[in-house]
Amino acid sequence: MSLIAAWDVLTRSEEGTISLGRAIGDSLSPGDAVLISGELGTGKTRLVQGIAAGLGTADRPRSPTFVLVNRHIGRLVLHHCDLYRLEGTAEVEELGLMERVDDGDVLAVEWPERARAALPEDAMEVTMKRGSGEEDRSITLTQNGPLSSRLLRAARSGFNAAKAES
Questions:
Q1: For the domain that residue 71 is a member of, what is the CATH number?
Q2: CA end-to-end span of the chain, whole Å?
Q3: Are 6 and 141 in contact, with CB atoms under 8 Å apart?
Q4: Residue 29 sits in which domain range?
Q5: DSSP assignment of 25-62
Q6: Residues 6+ apart with CB under 8 A from 43
Q7: d(Cα 53, Cα 75) in Å, to the nearest integer?
Q8: Number of structural domains, the chain?
Q9: If you ran DSSP here, which 8-state letter would residue 114 be given?
Q10: 26, 27, 53, 146: which has the fewest C-beta neighbours closer than 10 Å?
Q11: pLDDT value at residue 61
Q12: Which helix or strand (DSSP H or E) is residue 109 part of?
């Protein structure tokens, strides 16, 4: 499926990145997936912390690099995954991520490029890069189907509304 649309965001602090994540979390529906790419230290886990806050979880996600998948319960069940240490589709399929989405849980996956074929096709893809300032992050959100299209529109609307109120 070809890419439909994208939205570019510049955040200037960790709190700005968390705020964007919160808007995404507020917008998530059962079965949604957010795939987050970026070099080490670009704020992927900070974005997931915001997603978890938007879902109303009681805990603060940490990088699941060694555990691979952390589960957080809020308005929806969030599975936060880090595929950095995995080496391909077969290893990711063993995690059962597709089954979790089919059950109505949501995914936030760091390093999805490690095994994209084992992840939902219709997912919002987030690419994070360092900006010119120390805490600046250039973030591109891309939709690639009807579910991710709805999610991107809702997250954009929520983020812009939150910025207008602050």
A1: 3.40.50.300
A2: 37
A3: yes
A4: 5-165
A5: HHH--TT-EEEEEE-TTSSHHHHHHHHHHHHT-SS---
A6: 11, 14, 17, 128, 137
A7: 10
A8: 1
A9: G
A10: 146
A11: 82
A12: strand 106-110
Output the six-digit token pair for 121. 């096709």
pLDDT classification of 2: cutoffs 50, 70, 90? very low
Distance CA 10, CA 139 (A): 6
* Dihedrals phi, psi of 163, to nearest 5 degrees: -65, -40
| Vertex 38 angle, CA 37 and 42, to 5° | 130
Task: Identify the residue whose tokens are 């602090």.
Answer: 13
Residue 153 near residue 21, CB atoms below 8 Å? no
Q: Tell me, what amino acid is at 14?
A: E
Residue 109 CA to residue 152 CA, distance in Å, equals 16
Number of helices followed by number of strands (H, E) in the chain: 5, 7
Q: Are 123 and 150 in contact (CB under 8 A)?
A: no
What pTM value is reported for the model?
0.91
Q: 102 by DSSP, 3-state: which?
A: helix
φ and ψ of 82, to 5 deg = -130, 115
Q: Report the SS3 class of residue 117.
A: helix
